[in-house]
Structures are given as C-alpha cells and as structure tokens.
Recover the amino acids of this structure.
C-alpha cells in the first residue's frame, strides 16, 4: 500500500526566505542547528528551571541541559530509524543523516517557548487570561474566538513556533528562517485553538494546539511543502516527543535521588519486584553494573541511580524504534494514534508516580510554583491592562504609567509587533491591534528567564530599586 506521506516532502528544505542554505558538507538541518545553537533564545534556557529552582551548583538540570540531552537522544533515535529504513530500501544514507540532523535541531529547540518557572508558568498564563476574559469581553477588545483562545490556552510549544519564525531575529522579521521540515516537526499538536481536537478535550488543562492565528498562514505553507494536512503530525514529531519523554522521565528520577527526595534503592527494589519478570534482561543489565567498592557510599548511590537512568533510556530507545517501524504505514498515513512510548505505559506510569509523590510535591518545587504564580500574575496585571486599554499617544508618553511600562519592553518584540507581514512595512503604533499587543506582552514575559522575571517583579513591586542593566 502506498503511504500518503513521503520523505522527499517530509525532509523539505524550503525556508520562508531563500538563503545561502547549507554550506560545504552541512545538510540543511545541520545548518538550522548551527544558526540557533548560539542564539539568545537557547542561552536563556540556562536560567530556566527544569524541575527544581535554579541551583548554585551543577547538581540538577536546567532547561538548557535538558534540551541538550533531548537533542542527543533525538539524534540517536533519528539515526536508528534511518538505518532501519535503509535496510528496507526506503532511505538512502543521505536521508538517514538528514533525519538524524533534523531530530538533533528540533530536540535542542523543543522547549524554547517555555515561560519562566517551568510548565507551571504556562498554567499561570492560561488561568490569568481566562480570568481576565471573564471580566473583559474579548469581542469588545476586537478579538475573535480563535484569537482569545490563543491566550487562554497558551502553550510553550505554540510559543516555540513563534520564537523561531519571528522573535529570534537574524536580519529581518522572519526569525531564524528554519527549514519547513524543522518547523513542522516542532508542532506537537498541529491544529488551531478552535479545532475540534482541542475543544473536545473536557479537561481544560489538557487542551493543546499547535499554532497561533499570527502564524496560521505560515503553517499552511509548511503543510503544503511537507505534504501534511491540518491535524496530521510529521512522523519525526513522534520521535521528538518520545525523546523528550525518555529524557525527562529518567532524569527527574536521577535529580530527585541526588537531592535526597527519592530513596532510590528502595524504589528500585519495588520496580524490580513489579517488572523484573517482564523485563528480565533490562534489570539484569542494571544489576550487573556494580559501582567500585572504593567509591564513597553517596557516590555509590549516585552511580546506581545513574546506571538505572542509562540502561532505562537505552531500553526505551529500542522500544520506540520497534513501535515506529511496526506502525510505519499507519504513521506515514497520518493514522497512528497515541504515542510511541505507550507500549511501556505501565512501567513509565510507575516511574512517574515516584517523581510525582517524592519530587513534584517537595518544598522546593512547590515554592518555585508559588513564586512563579505571584511573579507572572503580577507582571500580566501590570502590563496587559495598561498597554491594551490606552491609545498610542499615551504609550508614546513616558511621563505616564502606561508609557513607562511600554518603554520597558525589548525593542525586538516591538519590532515584530509593528511589522506588517502582508505589506512588509512598519506599522504605526496606532495600527497595532489588541491581539498583537497581547502577543507583544506575552512574548516579553514568556521569554524572560526565571531570574529576570523575579527581578522585574521586585522592581515593579517596589521591593528592589532598579540597578544599571537590571531590566
């Protein structure tokens, strides 16, 4: 049976703007990686928490180290799948290299859109806008239902697409100018905020979508180039999500054990009692790796949890590879439902229970979330009403409060908000819609690092006096 999707389109090299392309021996996706790895968007990840508040040591992972590990796992998955497809006569070696390079760059950038304070920051932004829209009718602000949903269902994955296509500017308003295949792969939920897939989800917290109204036209171009339909994931997206899950599931265990929140030897024994018969080789391999007796006792404990992490990640990688190949036709026809790791859902569920009970409910993490709640809500309370309810003349006047707040926003975000993409010109301030003003504010706040957000909160709250270069 002929599949609906084909890799010649799925590995599309087209970009929004014609550029120099891959130089020398680089393929197009290696060029994407090289143009983003040193960017400010990637660098900011080093000051964004993964699970625990940012540490003064290198004990636990930041959002940057997490992304680096996901990039490595995604690369390995891409290569493994490519080699399997070569065996079946579907891929040439060059396509294997392209797929693995595509996976590496998307692994690196998959979390660029996450706001300060981890995933809880997304929850705060969503709840703030739902509350605000209950008080201020979106229609009276000139927002249609899709535009309002873009904010009350805000998600870092959606913001990610906006960052790499607009906000991470190189020379113009087209962002990093990535290949359309890279952009397609990072869209985990390729439908709009008013699609049936989103609205049918009863749990508001689980309502996910893939692109804002502001990027909808570009998404149509991406789908046309890659052969995807609305609602259809790029096959590489399944691999990217699996790579992310494999990394955080195991890394959260390691970080939690290192911090002393997980009694690892006890939890490992319980996992082995439950799954040892089903996964004999996996647990035998883990047990065969014995730390040197001359190591410090704490180092032995760290080594044991590290061995679990390493072997479990390798095991899950092979599981994902098998599921992808076994379901290849379904995936290539846009008919595969669920996730590649569902085959190990019971084991993964029990591993997640360990972190949920011992890590995500600990004082450090809960305190971080409470701080994030206070900081982000305060910033939105300050910026949104002031900037979205006054005219351009007031915003330009730094002698009043709205003008002062508007002047704090980075010029890069103002440049994007004022760019008329249809006519490729700069809009006057009075021409900027409320929808674009909301994006301007959310671009600014969600792009903050944890430290920057806390410092700005302190300054606006009068807790701390501004210092040179503090904002």
């Amino acid at each position: 049976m002929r599949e609906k999707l084909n890799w010649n389109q799925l590995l599309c090299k087209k970009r929004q703007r014609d550029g120099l392309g891959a130089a020398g021996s680089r393929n197009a996706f290696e060029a994407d990686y090289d143009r983003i790895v040193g960017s400010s968007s990637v660098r900011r990840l080093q000051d964004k928490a993964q699970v625990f508040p940012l540490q003064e040591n290198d004990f636990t992972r930041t959002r940057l180290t997490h992304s680096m590990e996901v990039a490595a796992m995604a690369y390995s998955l891409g290569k493994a799948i490519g080699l399997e497809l070569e065996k079946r006569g579907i891929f040439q070696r060059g396509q294997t290299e392209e797929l693995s390079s595509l996976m590496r760059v998307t692994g690196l950038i998959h979390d660029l859109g996450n706001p300060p304070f981890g995933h809880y920051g997304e929850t705060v932004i969503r709840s703030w806008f739902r509350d605000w829209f209950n008080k201020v009718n979106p229609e009276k602000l000139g927002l249609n239902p899709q535009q309002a949903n873009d904010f009350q269902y805000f998600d870092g994955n959606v913001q990610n697409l906006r960052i790499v296509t607009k906000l991470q500017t190189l020379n113009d308003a087209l962002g990093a100018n990535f290949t359309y295949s890279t952009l397609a792969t990072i869209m985990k939920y390729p439908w709009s905020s008013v699609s049936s897939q989103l609205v049918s989800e009863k749990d508001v917290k689980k309502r996910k979508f893939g692109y804002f109204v502001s990027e909808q036209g570009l998404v149509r171009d991406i789908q046309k180039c890659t052969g995807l339909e609305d609602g259809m994931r790029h096959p590489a997206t399944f691999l990217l999500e699996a790579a992310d899950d494999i990394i955080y599931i195991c890394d959260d265990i390691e970080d939690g054990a290192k911090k002393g929140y997980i009694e690892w030897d006890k939890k490992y024994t319980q996992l082995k009692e439950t799954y040892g018969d089903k996964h004999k080789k996996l647990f035998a391999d883990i047990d065969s790796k014995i730390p040197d007796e001359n190591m410090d006792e704490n180092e032995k404990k760290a080594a044991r949890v590290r061995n679990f992490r390493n072997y479990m990640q390798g095991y899950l990688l092979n599981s994902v590879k098998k599921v992808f190949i076994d379901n290849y036709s379904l995936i290539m026809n846009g008919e595969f439902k669920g996730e590649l790791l569902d085959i190990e859902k019971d084991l993964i569920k029990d591993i997640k229970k360990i972190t949920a009970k011992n890590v995500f409910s600990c004082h450090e993490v809960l305190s971080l979330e409470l701080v994030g709640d206070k900081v982000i809500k305060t910033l939105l309370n300050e910026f949104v009403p002031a900037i979205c309810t006054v005219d351009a003349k007031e915003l330009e006047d730094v002698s009043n409060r709205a003008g002062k707040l508007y002047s704090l926003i980075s010029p890069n975000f103002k440049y994007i908000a004022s760019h008329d993409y249809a006519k490729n010109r700069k809009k006057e301030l009075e021409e900027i819609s409320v929808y674009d003003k909301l994006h301007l504010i959310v671009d600014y706040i969600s792009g903050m690092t944890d430290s920057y957000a806390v410092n700005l909160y302190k300054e606006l709250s009068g807790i701390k006096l501004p210092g040179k270069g503090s904002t």
Q: What stands out?
A: Residues 338 and 367 are 34 Å apart (CA to CA). The chain is about 60% helix and 0% strand. The domain at 7-115+127-226 is CATH 1.10.3210.10 (Hypothetical protein af1432).
